[in-house]
Amino acid sequence: MALCEKIERPGINEFLYWLEQKTDFFTAPASTRFHGSYAGGLLEHSLNVYDELKRLLAAYPEIEVTEDTVMIASLFHDVCKVNFYATEKRNRKNESGQWESYDAYTIQEKFCFGGHGSKSVYLIQHFMKLEPVEAVAINCHMGAWDGNKDVSSAYEAFPFAWLLHVADEAATYIKEAKEKNT
Ligand SMILES: [Fe+2]
Ligand SMILES: [Fe+2]
Predict the structure, then answer these.
(1) For 51-77, how does the pLDDT look when each residue is reduced to its tens digit (9 = 90+)?
(2) Distance 14 CA to ligand 2 centre (A)
(3) Is this structure's pTM higher than 0.85?
């Protein structure tokens, strides 16, 4: 929230109010069983992507964007995952061979948009206007994984979009994988 207070885009307050009051953005996991599969995982992942993006921008000073763009693109790229997960009871054997029940995350999509990055763009734009570079970066943050065939042309036109993609993967496969193993 301290970071978000610096964002000057009209509509940011309404967007934050919606995130706080109407969604589980601050408590949702980042996935059901891969990275960040715990309460708060989505928030932590979003902050990790912000940190990784700042590191990448320091390495590529020729890519110039505003601080608002950095925060909006990184913190909200996965906003499509709000109101998306639920928990269900499952059974497993514990260390002493006894069956025990536990809460597991499962997907229970409340708003099937038909896309991942595109859904984030849609949800954000409901509250505040995105700059073209932000919309492209968020829409293409999954790279080729999202089935977006024209992603390389988008990255050529907006190299910042490629940086967001790399920051997302660096957070997932390096930072969060390391945290999981320690
Ligand atoms: Fe994503
Ligand atoms: Fe992500």
Answers:
(1) 999 999 999 999 999 999 999 999 999
(2) 23
(3) yes
